[in-house]
Amino acid sequence: MDRRFSVIIAVLGCEILFRLAYQAFDLRMDPLIYTLSARLFELFVILDYAYAISGIRARSIRTEVIVGVAVSCAVGAAVLTADLASRLAVTGGILKMILGRQEVQNPLLFFLVACLIGPFVEELFFRGLFYSWLRQRLPVPVSVLLSALAFAGMHGVMSPVQLIGGLLFAVLFEWRKNIWAPYIVHVAANTGIWIVPWIHPLW
Questions:
Q1: Confidence tier at 112 by pLDDT (50, 70, 90)
Q2: Three-class secondary structure of residue 200 per DSSP
Q3: Rounded to the nearest 10 degrees, how much is the dihedral formed by the CA atoms of 115, 117, 119, 122?
Q4: How many distinct helices (H) and strands (E) make up the chain?
Q5: Contact (Cβ atoms closer than 8 angstroms) between residue 154 and residue 29
Q6: By C-alpha distance, which of 53, 65, 48 is closest to 5?
Q7: Where are the alpha helices (DSSP H) in 88-159?
Q8: How confident is residue 160, by pLDDT bands cut at 50, 70 and 90?
Q9: Which candidate in 33, 64, 88, 166 could, as Cys together with 180 as Cys, close a disulfide (CB 3.0–4.6 Å)?
Q10: Radius of gyration from C-alpha coordinates of the chain
Q11: CA-based angle 151:74:187, to the nearest 5?
């Protein structure tokens, strides 16, 4: 069996087992601690069994970070501009319609799990492994779409935010051939989704 496919199945198995255990044993642990535990275990599986084919290698991580920051700034500016322009037709703007303020009791833990570690493992899995596996078999547009649908679907709700993110991250991965630029944009997006509703001056 193809190693990439084997690790994809193994990680999916880990995710299912963690979710079943959480429900079956009625674990009374902080959901962030539970998520952190699951993601760290999945990270170990990916790096231990598929390090060389996970998309983690890059010629220059510094260059990839610069690309990721530049894309993040461009996308962020475009989103805020679209939100301000939409206020001509939509009361409160489009961002207020699709984003809500997240009440976070432990901001440091939330940032660590939802904005740093979670996106890293997701990029390794969805782009480094799953998208790459699709690309061995399918053309770019189909691979981008299927990986984005899987990414959005695994978040529980097929929201336009997750779907657009999945499309953007896959296109970036196809362009850069590693996870670092998509990871930086993913970090910026998750952080923005959390922070912007609290600091947007017109919210």
A1: very high
A2: coil
A3: -160
A4: 10, 0
A5: no
A6: 53
A7: 94-98, 107-110, 118-122, 132-135, 140-154
A8: confident
A9: 64
A10: 18
A11: 40
